[in-house]
Amino acid sequence: KYQDERFDTAVFGLFQVKFGETKSISRRSISEYIRNGSIVLNGNKTKPSVKVSFSDTVTYDEGILSSQEDALLPSGDIGIEVIFENEHLIVIDKPAGILMHPTSGKRENTVANWIIAQYPELLSIGENSLRPGIVHRLDFETSGIVLIAKTEKSYHELKRLFQERMVRKQYVALAYGHIDPLQGKIDSSLGRRSGDLKRHAINPQEESGTLSTNIRPALTEYQVIARYQEYDLLVLSPKTGRTHQIRVHLSSLGHPIVGDALYSMKSFRRQNIRAHRQLLHAFHIEFDLFGEKYSFFSSLPKDFADILGDIDETKVAGYDDEALKSLFSV
Length: 330
Fold this sequence. Notes:
Radius of gyration: 21 Å
Strand content: 15-25%
Number of helices: 10
Structural class: alpha+beta
Number of strands: 14
Distance between the termini: 47 Å
Order of helices and strands: HHEEHEEHEHEEEEHEEHHEEHEH
Shape: globular
């Protein structure tokens, strides 16, 4: 399965298969462990970039697993707003620039740190003590609605709802260029690029000619709700929950999200627009839990709204002005 993959990429994939979410080892950590000899190939210390073959063996120091379970440190006010709370769940509005849980490079000021500061009783909820009550995630630069389970019962039920695609999620994004047709579906499988620890791609095995790990079907529905001279504003509904799904799908159409440094082409990144992060916001979520219907909205954060205000003079078409106005008045 990992033939001709980079060593660090193959180890990350192997650990995901072996441990799933029970051990939190980032790709960056794995590369560091390879460099310091805590993970070796065929008994020898080597570089993370070395390509592996079917006959290779991996050996690791078990201490790297236990070191991932350090106590979660509480964090104070990091700008997270609670939208709703009852006995089953907490609904928060995550600002851009906040990680969901600690990594090897950042142990504090994540959503997980905030959770145990505000709700210390949630430390034991879920399958990983570094992710208390967390059943789904948003990227570091993506803002918007996140659900947190308050009980084991609600944790497992929410997790089931996400796995069975029974949670309706909607995002708003500003993309480069004009998308045609104005409404449609992007139905393309996703996986990590061969030899790349960060980037995902459409059908990566077709790009490289080699098999890549974790290739899964992915479906995103979209609708253009406003058109500007150089950009489209879209509402997107991911029907699956793959890593970087919306970002990769839009980039695959040739219309990456404004501010997305990872998936934008150089020609787009040179455009004169002051986006300091990818302009992607999770603004609506809807689901049924224990016989009750839930629906939550989050208005556009100020940085996103300000950019739309700045480019408003170049607006050339309003396909759904009511939908556009609603983003500002939730």
